[in-house]
């Protein structure tokens, strides 16, 4: 009996020792969060519709910026910032990322800034310009002051999130929401902004859940590939549009969690039946309910290590000759006249037209469980199947509107067809040329491979 008792005692001691060792083992992830209200204190113009030039008159909902800082067991760190804006000049994104890197010590390639593209968000800029667009000149200074204040808030919440990390568990899944529709409608008059039920659109709803060790959700990061343009275009009110209401829904139904939205490749997608205030909350609730449903499903665990990479895509631009530009500036489509005049001004200054546009493309690799692809600017839905073919469709989250939002990146087919999405850069000069699709997808392959994804 004594030997049996000794063996049982030794087994009990080993179990206790193993349990103590497990309790002392460091968590695989640490996460820090922070948020800031970024509703302007004074009325300034909203961004998104050219004819809407007056400052906003009311606030339908406060808009926000949120930060999620992550650290793996090896000490690799990254920060995601999501912000309820419409557009973002590249120099502003670069400034914020540089300041965040200086404050936190995190490399710029591991700092991601995603813009929700709400068309009910304030305009931002760092430099004054003549009031050629009809905006009251005094609002230039107020917009610049707001932009400087906003940059400070983004750096502040990034530093707060990075400085207060706690043990965490990560998991993810994908759902579906049906209200996005391709907006490239083919008519006898050409392609208009309308409804194309047969057109390509990405209706997936990726969800990343960040839990505390006790299983309580701390962060719910979700995405959808659709313009935030449900709000009436003539309503002079600040709002996050459907994504703002989706975040509200999630935070009401998941108390204590920080809901964050990361928009996808929705440059040629709009909410179906939009331009009504009531639909805005309806679509937000639809998306929020689906996110909550996915959260309660069997999510896949996300392990480390975390590795981030960023490459520069060289996207080809058209270089028309002077005669072609003069003809466009005189009799071309309305959206083409302004860029044509800018290109003529470039030629008049003695400079050549730029042959390429340099754009940042990022990838975050979470072990072998998940790859987050971060595309810049307004990217059309065609890039989703393109990237799936290039790097494989499994364990993949594809986002757009990262680091900058300065123009539309069309597919080659859309360039051939024409339409609104061929307008090119609205900050800067140029229209994208055939070959842009291959150039962007090639950059994605490079970024994904550098981050550690096995690329076929």
Describe this structure in words.
- Helix content is 34%, strand content 27%.
- It starts with a helix and ends in a 5-residue tail after the last helix.
- The strands form five sheets. Strands 1, 3, 4, 5, 6, 9, 10, 12 and 14 form a nine-stranded mixed β-sheet that branches. A four-stranded mixed β-sheet has the order 15-16-17-19, covered by helices on one side.
- The relative contact order is 0.13.
- Strand 4 (77-83), helix 2 and strand 5 form a beta-alpha-beta unit.
- The protein has helices spanning 2-24, 90-104, 138-163, 241-253, 277-296, 322-331, 334-348, 383-391, 412-417, 436-451, and strands at residues 29-37, 58-59, 64-72, 77-83, 111-115, 166-176, 180-187, 190-196, 204-211, 217-224, 237-238, 258-263, 269-271, 300-302, 306-316, 356-366, 370-374, 378-379, 396-399, 408-409.
- The protein folds into two domains: 29-310 and 360-404, no CATH class; 318-348, no CATH class.
- With 456 residues, the protein is α/β, with parallel strands linked by helices.
- Helix 2 runs parallel beside helix 3 and helix 6 (322-331) runs antiparallel to helix 7 (334-348).
